[in-house]
Design a protein that fits this description.
The complex is a heterodimer of chains A (146) and B (400).
Chain A: H1 3-9, E1 15-18, H2 23-31, E2 38-42, E3 48-53, H3 54-61, H4 71-78, E4 94-95, H5 100-109, E5 114-118, E6 124-129, H6 130-138
Parallel strand pairs in A: 1-2, 4-5
Antiparallel strand pairs in A: 2-3, 5-6
Chain B: H1 2-24, H2 28-38, H3 44-47, H4 56-72, H5 77-82, H6 85-109, H7 118-128, H8 134-143, H9 149-176, H10 181-210, H11 219-237, H12 241-256, H13 265-268, H14 271-284, H15 288-293, H16 295-319, H17 324-327, H18 339-348, H19 355-386, H20 391-394
The chains are: A alpha/beta (146), B mainly alpha (400).
Chain lengths: 146, 400
Amino acid sequence: MKIADWLDLHPVTGVTVGRDASLEEAADALLGEPECRDIYVTDAEGRVVGHLGFRRLAGVLLSAHRPTHSRRQMLERVARGPVHEFMDRRFISARLDESVHHVLHPHMERRVEDIPVLDGEGRLAGVIRLVDLVRAAIEPSDDSIG
Amino acid sequence: MEILLIGVLLLSGLAVGSLGSHLLGVPRVAGYILLGMLFAPDLLGGHLGMESTDWTQPLVSVALGIIAYVIGGAISPGQLRRLGWSIVGATLGEVSGAFLAVLGGVLLLGMTVADLPLWSFALVLAAVAPATAPAAIVAVVHQYRARGQLTTTLLGMVAIDDALGIFIFALVLALVGSGSIGSALGTAFWEIGVALLVGGMGGFLIERLSRRFHEQSMLLPMLLGGIFLTVGLAEWAEFSALLAAMVLGFSVRWFCGPHAERLFEPVEDLEETVFVLFFTFAGLHFDPSAVIDYWPLMLVYFVARAVGLFVGGGSGARLAGASRPVWSNVGFGLFPQGGVAIGLALLLLHYPGFSKAGEVIVNLITTTTLLTEAVGAISVRYGLRRAGELGLEQAGGEAK
């Protein structure tokens, strides 16, 4: 199945935040969309420039409760920067004209839960959630992965 | 036999350290050192065929390289800018205060070892003094839910002061290893300059190479390979391995930009293993007669370091515009000294001209580390309480 067709059947828009937003603002945006586990960082033109997972976000925001810190974690705690200093800028994304079958495995190897789909200009067109893919895999129907 | 002993030291060191901490409330490092003492060549180590401790040298070099890489990669340029002048000023004051106070104290005492010039001995001891033990400070902050300006300042300071300490140590080793002032400048230029160059280029190459590896499991061998290669090159070409490994870490962080933790987390996980090895190795070298013969030196080192940290850290913070609760209490939070200082001392054992002095310095740092571990936590807690930042006490709770 083409990714564009999958997004028609499973429309998930995803959550984005500007690169200079604070981690608190990113968390607030993510908590407003409980179905999403990842947030995508955008530049001034709305192009996706990075990815930030919920675990990483939570790890930094809750760092005061960690019993041990590496020096790197200490500095993240006391000199916290905007969201673009925490994002993964070498994330893997999918295109609308690719097939779900071909992009699934590379994404699972990176241990990310959501697959961002970008349009021709690099803006977020939607998100393929792993939970929807698993649901489709165990309940064969017309909208299976293919 | 060495591999057997390393296994025994790691496992029984962890067991004794954890049991001592759990049952008797003594710092874990005391257990590690005690275990090392038991396996010294004169005791159980001799029965395992251990006639000397020379075999520990390559391990110490590589392990210190790992720690230096982690220290170098702890901070990004952006974080350094955001830390604020009060933290940077307090750190500069703390590091220079400890260095100058120990240097002055040892020179005034006039006590040296074998035929090592007093200036060289005093400089090396002073160069070990600024190292602190972040783990001990974080433990108190976590236990008492400390929050506030002093807590933030302390965490920022102990995260970066070891980097300055390693730089000073590398510079001092380059200087004392030379015969005259003229050759000292040339040696220092070579040791420091080439270390900066090799570390910087190595960091660039490692970061580029890491883009090829998406699986987390492939990163550790790549990073360890980079650190081993840097340390090995440094020993071969006689430039500072410590500084090169630290610059390697800084450079990897610099070129990687955001999301650099994947290039540090796997190595950071090795830190506790390295420290267990350092403390048990220090125990292998423990010599009660050195402690008895050089007790005035140990006393001077301990007191001068404490005064230097207190006065230097407080003055630096005050000059940099920190508030009174910060500058008047920051010195209390800096006493603990641990694995980094022990590692630097162990490195001296195999440095030309330092074989006897190295033994004394290892024993001195081991003894004072036990003292600072014992009183350090009390001191950190006292400073945080004076600043009114012990959150759990303010909430009427009890620390567990």
